[in-house]
Amino acid sequence: GDSVTQMEGPVTLSEEAFLTINCTYTATGYPSLFWYVQYPGEGLQLLLKATKADDKGSNKGFEATYRKETTSFHLEKGSVQVSDSAVYFCALSEGAQKLVFGQGTRLTINP
Amino acid sequence: DVKVTQSSRYLVKRTGEKVFLECVQDMDHENMFWYRQDPGLGLRLIYFSYDVKMKEKGDIPEGYSVSREKKERFSLILESASTNQTSMYLCASSSWTGGLYEQYFGPGTRLTVT
User: Fold this and answer.
1) Pick from B59, B30, B31: which is nearest to B46 by CA?
2) Can you point out the beta strands (E) in B1-114?
3) By the number of CB atoms within 10 A of the CB, which of A8, A24, B65, B69 ranks highest?
4) Degrees (nearest 5) of the Cα angle B95, A36, B36?
């Protein structure tokens, strides 16, 4: 079945550092890909999405590019802030209503 | 903005109790979902519903049931709560938007079973 694998956390960075959270997937077809973010005490919010190969999703300074050849959708941000501290989830959907999530990566940014 | 609300943020129940978790969405979405979230395991789908009175099992339906009598409301039922059902429960709804299904999540209910 479909699956998503994220880099193990927790990840701790200093403010203004460069962020990469790796995400790779396994799917039989051509999924849509998502990054969700969960701030402390809250539900998940959609951060960005991409629906086909080479699409780049972007939002709030975060970016991720749909790479079909490497089955990856890595999340990047050039300069992180303390307010980016959260848990980040990579997910895929193959046109059906359901999402398949990775295990989540906890990110902590120190001032 | 889409709003998904859950009846409780925190809930403490005893082993063997019947537990109801309620979820309401205000955007007329046809699809609704219940997940549980556990550290290191991400989100796992318990049940989902694509229409009133319709339900489908997700990946971990054992010990749970659901009810969808109205389009906006989706209830998760723990028939006889057990300690291994202590978890964060997240409800979501979705509809077809811009070529894909985008899910919107509620704030979650942290359930503790003692």
Assistant:
1) B59
2) 4-6, 10-13, 19-25, 31-38, 42-49, 56-57, 64-70, 73-78, 87-97, 100-105, 109-113
3) A24
4) 80
By CA distance, what is B39's nearest residue in A?
A103
Where is average pLDDT lowest: A31-45, A93-107, B29-43? A93-107
User: Splitting chain B (114 residues) into consecutive groups of 10 residues, what average pLDDT does each group show?
Assistant: 88 97 94 92 92 92 97 97 97 84 91 98
Asked whether the beta carbons of residue B90 and residue A44 sit closer than 8 angstroms, the reply is yes
Which residues, other chains included, contact A94 with Cβ-Cβ below 8 Å and sequence gap of 6+? A2, A27, A28, A29, A30, A31, A32
Chain B: closest CA distance from residue A99 (Å): 8
**CA–CA–CA angle A81, A87, A91 (5° rounding):** 120
Q: Can you tell me the distance from the alpha carbon of A28 to that of A71, in angstroms, rounded to the nearest whole number?
A: 11
CA atoms in the 13 A half-sphere facing the CB of B27: 19
pLDDT at A73: 98
Confidence of residue A80 (pLDDT cuts 50, 70, 90): very high
Q: For A49-62, how does the pLDDT look when each residue is reduced to its tens digit (9 = 90+)? A: 998 899 999 999 99
Residue labelled with tokens 């989902």:
B48
Nearest chain B alpha carbon to A49: B102
Nearest chain A CA: its distance from B67 CA (Å): 18
DSSP string, B54-66: --EE-S--TTEEE
| Residue in chain B lying closest to A10 (CA) | B40
